[in-house]
Amino acid sequence: MTLRGGYGMRGVINAPDEKPKITWPLMKRVLEYATPYHLLIGAMMLLILAHTGLMLLTPLILRDLIDRTIPAGEVNRLLMLALALLVIPAADGAINVIQRRVSARIGEGVIYDLRMALYSSLQRMSLRFFTNTKVGELMSRLNNDVRGAQNAITSTTVGIVTQIVRAAAVLTVMLSLEWRLTLISVAILPLFIVAARLLGTRLRDMARLQMDASAEMNAMMNETLNIGGALLVKLFGRRQLEIDRFGQRAAQVRNLGVQRMVVGSVFAAIIGLIGAVGTALVYGLGGYLVIQGAFTIGTIVAFGAYLGNLYSSLQGLSNAPVEFATSIVSFERVFEVIDLPVDVPETDDATALDTIRGELTFENVTFAYEGGDETLLSDVKRYGSMDNVTAVLSGTKTYAASPEAETRSQARSKALDQVSFRAEPGQLVALVGPSGAGKTTLTYLIPRLYDPDEGIIRLDGHDLRDLTLESLSEQIGMVTQESYLFHDTIATNLLYARLDATQKELVEACKVANIHEFIHALPDGYDTIVGERGYRLSGGEKQRLALARVILKNPRILVLDEATSSLDSESEALIQDALARVMAQRTSIVIAHRLSTILAADLILVIDRGRIVESGDHGTLLAQGGLYASLYQTQYRRESQELALVQ
User: Fold this and answer.
1) pTM
2) Does domain 1-177+319-340 bear CATH number 1.20.1560.10?
3) Burial of 88 from C-beta contacts in 10 A (0-12 / 13-18 / 19+)
4) Is residue 128 within 8 Å of 375, Cβ to Cβ?
5) 414 vs 403: CA distance, rounded Å
């Protein structure tokens, strides 16, 4: 007899050390995702009943053949029953195909609904959330947890219902055939449970070890096979070192896989032996009762056929509570993200600005990066994911920060402290100051990547929090120091700024940014793939593409980090010329790295430790002899001399 115990074994292997808790509010919310598919779920239940009914017919046909048809020599009945033995598997196969199709529609529908809700929720989150959350964890929520949530509805729940219906139906028929044999069949169920708990725990632990080892191997591949990692390996000549490291991790996965297969084979053999004990008892006692004339040979044959189905169903049900609870946890992980509070919310009556003058005002603005921990995701121990890996190459563990390190990290809790200034329409405001002073943080508050903890930022007199995020985004263009490009064509990256832009507008924007001639000289022109993060382009080319993108958007307010220190003189000259065109007639907030930009600024804000310590034009600030004068002497004096020589 072959036991179909795959379902039960899977439940044992994946069972956690502690049974997860299921609450009614959680279950109610889970059922809401199944509600749109209630008709399909109902149809699947009917298909399960039909499948179970067909499964019950075959043993009864065998009983009739042995006890009545063959002894009586009824040829016509024999032909009909033989035909039924052919029709039943065919019909059952058709029902199984339909059931899988219905189940797939439900499952994929639930996955779609959850992913859309999850992705939409993530898109609402501020930059604070993404700077404090691992990308791998987000990907795991979108993939592993969503898939686990789908299994809770389509696989686990359907499996439990199927096992219950099958066990109830089989037990009913078995009791109607012979109650004594039925009691003997059920009596060995504890042996299944004991074997599942003992060997199943061992098999589960080995599966976890293999998944952990596989996670380490995958993490190493991710680190060393991306563009940056591959470049580093080649530059330092560590090809053989990484091959050896990968070999060690791959060997660990291999060895654990072999051990797992051996233990799994032992587990299956013991389960089969226990089933054989039940079968031996049933046929032994049943044979004796047949000899005594208690029932017929056909009855014991039919009974034996039902026995395998009963053991498979009971074994599966013994693990069903743990497996169901484990699947439901995936819903809980998904709901955790969906329920995250939005720290940059949009009010219901937010104002949409069509046109603006470009007056920007900061009023006693204070901001701290701390305090956002309530929006972070809880740590999840998820076997087989890269989130469990600490140090990818060395394999060492990470430890909590020392008190001294924590003290240093809290040395300046406020990134901005009581910042106030006004940028008039069309003005160029230059931000200068030492590294870490808060200049980038200030620029991030303008497009509401963050909201200030205190104070108000106004655009044309409107509090930014009273404006729609979409209209605010349309009015503000931002170019960061690291120009990010998607792994797509140049045209697609540029059109991201304005989806309805024409080819002519695209070309004009690139001409203003001094990048059109370069693009035109490429074999594929605007259809050239830029590579991951624009890696196929130089730093200057990426920056000019970023400028062209913001020109195409045509915002009234321009925010940019004018980082040109790492560029060659030709690229720097092209970008400086492009910047002069881009900033014309726009309110511009620029983190200035070049003296030429500072000299052209209408207002210079000198920022230090989150505060504006000096403000004014170049001559005024230089005459004060403060921080700006010091920065000028250390950073801009040589550039000033070079400009004088050129003139």
Assistant:
1) 0.73
2) yes
3) middle
4) yes
5) 20
